[in-house]
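Late entry, written up from scratch paper. The run itself happened at the end of the previous shift, but nothing got recorded in the book at the time, so transcribing now.
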Amino acid sequence: MCMFPARAAMPTRPRSCSHPSGGSPAGFELLIIDEADRLKTTALEQFRDHYDRSRLGMILIGMPGIEKRLARYPQLYSRIGFVHEYRTLSADELVFVLQHHWSKLSLTLSADDFTDAEALAAVARITGGNFRLVQRLFAQIQRIMEINTLSTITREVVETARESLVIGSL
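Output as recorded:
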């Protein structure tokens, strides 16, 4: 069983992943449990029991602090193989991700272009390198560009997209 405390999360429904052939590789299945920090002790115990009775691998994803909480339950915590904390994107990683988003809109991100550099700086300031927030922000950027038939991502477009997100104060 693995635990991954993470700032980014996926949908809350557990999903079982299996091999394309219908079975699972080497007879193992993987259960990914997102927002595990929100589970009550009873639910965590049920997952532990299921883990004990099967060849099921588990990944628990939750907010920082989940490891300390789970450490209070020795029977569960003793089954955790390792912990990985996701960090924010570096400047280079952010540029790489943004280049992908720009290309999905048939645009090219150029750090030498003043408008692109301004937009990039706005995205970096708003998201702080949080991958999940970058994804959410870009969904809004794309929506704004389509509604207004725009062909350039500007600082103003990024700021307008930010206004439609619930992310707290900057």
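The chain has two domains: 2-77, 91-163.
(Scratch paper discarded after transcription.)
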